[in-house]
Amino acid sequence: MPPEHDGMPPDEIELICRDVVEMVTEYLGQTLAPAERQRFEHHLSTCPPCTSYLAQMRVTLELAGDLGKPEAADQAERELASLFRRWHQKK
Ligand SMILES: [Zn+2]
């Protein structure tokens, strides 16, 4: 387990935050498999920074106007991944 998850029971964390960063565009684009979607949502319920990240990502992608544009999603992902790292370091 990565150090940012200490204090949480490892069994509860099936998905680490890095996976959320990678899966968020698929999640928002409704292309995530149902089982993965469930894991994703379960992780969100245990991880407030990821919930905030998802909310930010949703807005960013809506502003970008097109989930199908890989470069727009890429850029948003990079920006938000750095924001996200700061959230984790803050606590
Ligand atoms: Zn997380």
Order of helical and strand elements: HHHH
- Low-pLDDT residue spans: none
Structural class determined from secondary elements: mainly alpha
Judging from the principal axes of the Cα atoms, what is the shape?
globular
Specify the helix fraction band.
55-70%
- Percentage of residues in strands: under 5%
Tally of individual domains: 1
Ligand species = zinc ion
Distance between the termini: 17 Å
Query: What is the average of the pLDDT values?
Result: 77
Gyration radius (Cα, Å) is: 13 Å
Number of strand segments: 0
What is the makeup of the main sheet?
none
Number of helices: 4
Offer a few descriptive terms.
binds zinc ion, 4 helices, mainly alpha, 91 residues
Descriptive notes:
The protein is mostly helical. The chain has helices at residues 17-28, 34-46, 48-64, 70-90. It has one domain. Helix 1 (17-28) packs parallel to helix 3 (48-64), helix 2 (34-46) packs across helix 3 (48-64) and helix 3 (48-64) packs antiparallel against helix 4. The chain starts with 16 loop residues before the first helix and ends with a helix. The model has no long low-confidence stretch (mean pLDDT 77). The structure holds zinc ion.
Brief characterization of the structure:
The two termini are 17 Å apart. The chain contains four helices and no strands. With 91 residues, the protein is mainly alpha-helical.
